[in-house]
Amino acid sequence: MPLLSLRGVSRDFDVSRPWLDRALEHEPRRFLRAVDGVDLDVNPGETLALVGESGSGKSTLARLIVGLYAPTSGAVSFSGRRMQMIFQDPYASLNPRWRVRDIIAEPMRVLQTKKEVSDLLRQVGLAPEDAERYPHEFSGGQRQRVSIARALAGEPDLLVCDEPTSALDVSVQAQILNLMIDLQRRLGLTYVFISHNLAVVSQVADRVGVMYLGRIVEVASAKALFSHPRHPYTRMLLDAVPDLELSGRPRTPVAGEVPNPLDPPPGCPFNPRCPHANERCRTEKPAFIDGVACHAVAEGRI
Amino acid sequence: MTLEVKGLKVEFPSRRGTLTALDDVSFSIQRGEVLGVVGESGAGKSLTGLAIIGLLEPPGRIAAGEIWLEGRRIDNLPPEEMRRVRGRRIGVVFQDPLTSLNPLFTIGQQLEETILTHLPLGRAAARDRALSLLSEVGIPAPEARYDSYPHQFSGGMRQRVVIALAIAAEPVLLIADEPTTALDVSIQAQIIELLKRLARERGTAVMLITHDMGVIAETSQRVAVMYAGRVVEIGPVHEVIRAPLHPYTAGLMGSIPKIGIEKKRLVQIDGAMPRLNAIPPGCAFNPRCPKRFDRCLAERPDPLAVGARAAACWLHAAP
Amino acid sequence: MVAATLTLLCIAGALFAPWIAPQNPFDPASLNLNEAFHRPGSPGYPLGSDDQGRDLFSTILYGARISLGVGLASVLFALLLGVSLGLVSGYAGGRIDAFIMRVADVQLSFPAILIALLVDGVARVSLPGVVQGSIAIPVLILSIGVSGWVQYARTVRGLTLVEREKEYVQAARVIGRRPLAIMVAHVLPNVLGPVLVIATIHIATAIITEATLSFLGVGVPPTEPSLGTLIRVGNDFLFSGEWWIALFPGCALVILVLSINLLGDWLRDALNPKLR
After folding, report:
1. Of the candidates B170, C229, C125, B251, which has an alpha carbon nearest to the alpha carbon of residue A170?
2. What is the pLDDT of residue A218?
3. Distance from CA of B216 to the nearest CA of A (A)
4. Hey, which CATH number is domain C2-12+71-275, 1.10.3720.10, 2.40.50.140, 1.10.3470.10, 2.40.128.110?
5. What end-to-end distance do the CA atoms of chain C give, in Å?
6. Is the pLDDT of residue C270 over 70?
7. Is A110 in CB contact (< 8 Å) with chain C?
8. Statement: residue B5 has pLDDT above 90
9. For chain B, where do the domains classified as CATH 3.40.50.300 start and end?
């Protein structure tokens, strides 16, 4: 049984202008569909990564999972005890006026969990003395460790991580990723890991979901996705990753940019940039079949 | 040689003593070459760029060293003359394309203005040139977008406009400071292609500052690795990536996640780069170095000379 | 440095009036009508005496104490009202926010002094005469406070809108803390800095408002004169030659307000980490 499951989850944001302006100019209300009909299962003990570019809705989806946003339609069901979240910006995710001790102790007080602040600090690679310090006395990587300690204080079985390393330097990123892998092994945690960086994802994920304009276009095991990407968008993303191996592989130049989510193209959202798009792709939204939402794949064209 | 930097030292005098932000930095860039400058935040890579274009924030100042552009020394020019060099001979692209453009003018106006300031052209000729620049940096239908304002462009398109502005006066050197960091992966690849093409076709020397080794691997011929205000290793990209000499470079390469590798721990360098006011004696990397020995604690490795394939590390010192 | 000394001297003078002043001007037993209208410099009356025979120096010290007290209390009241409404407005958003901010807009289109007069007037009419004397000062505090909450509410709302989006607030929501707890424990400490600076400067404004109201005769009763009341009393004698009764309290008011403003400037610089 999955630990977390999403069925047809959508979320709209009201981006209309103020009521008076609308009334004066006879404008309708406008909605931005940030997440569009997402179905997703997360199994206990695995790391499910969600990748996508800006505007793909991955951060909104993370917030829908932990309940910071309510879904406009669809349902999120969670069969575990508790989830916690780790945020992207280590400079904004800790209250600057609180001591580290109070930051880490807050979930214990609210959720009545029994943990020791000094144990938690040691678990994330900090010293127990650090409890008396304020966030500004730490580097970005250390703050992210404090964030992780706070999340662990709530005794979660699911951790939703929204770009936890994208604000960090490479060597610090490696430290944090390693810490997360170690913690998962030791505590049997389940991760939903949001990132725009495919290389980071391939390092931590068991399964990967690729998002484009609010929809999941492909889900597969990390191994399968990185060796045999199926959706044209996944292929394009993989192709765009700078090549450190210096293999000199030819790169197909990627055309175009992500369309404005306020005005998504009809049919498949990827059709304006897709080399395989045909008439059907331009008019009909592809259904999510067998791990991928693409007419060309379904028809066996690619 | 388009650019030569020799023994550059930048200091920030403060109440609590003088901070040395750059120490004995030397490198050179040839015509048509892309030199990648890589390092973590605070390593001094952006500062090196600012020192070259003469835009150090006071009280920062060049305390020692020389900067030569096409055989002319430019680090001691009077501000007025330096300003002319900056627009005409050196183009600059910063990380955030939105703040590099004036939101109140159309991109056409901004391009024309730059061209007219630096080149002896009339209005009509400047407009023609602006249009050809826009198509050169890959903006589709430049005629139609000429009178658009920056906010009507997407991030990737804006960065193209910024690059068009930077090369408007046909500079011999282009300094690009994290030009792809604010962009999505797919757009990033497009901008990398553009920079490579500019170097190849126009013979512009490009100094590409970034924290992303992947971008450098795709773009540059040579790479300089910076750590705590010093160049610790320099050489052809292939050699530095495949066989890094300096333990810091080796650690950095190991900590970069790579696609296709099974889920596993990365090589990691423990600790963090020292702050400028707490750089340890000897080699700046010694507290984090897995291979340090006595000499590293006491003596600073010799700074790298211009043009060498070398690492500032006692492991690789000439006997 | 000079400013700091002057400020301290002023505030100390006002606070410790009962111990410094040669005479207690509120004690009817010590008053002697024969001693009225002493010129400044007369023995025992360094700044002269007023029409009741009260020593002007003592009266000013006591008056400054009341002015300062009323100023402080009304700012505290405005602060409490404004900060809570601003927090709720910024954090809750939507209709609550729109309502509070429209009320604020409406109030801003009237001069503060008019609001204070209105509140004061309503309170006077609706309360029986007997009670009026004893509650004159609380009513005054209330009316000045109500006239001044808007700028706190607006500042706090703006800052709250920024803080609310920060990830530490979202983290607290994920933990499951209630909105009120988040507002008080997380947001409030992070928006208070700028508000305190406004508050110090507002004390000066509040003292002037109090003086104006008292001068108009709707403020502090003459039995417990504040600086404004003293100026009003003095005004009656201004053209009959007893100029000192109005002039000295006026000077005291200027110095008091000036020194509080200086204090506010200093506090602003001290709280600004960029200038440290």
Report:
1. B251
2. 96
3. 9
4. 1.10.3720.10
5. 17
6. yes
7. yes
8. yes
9. 3-89+171-316
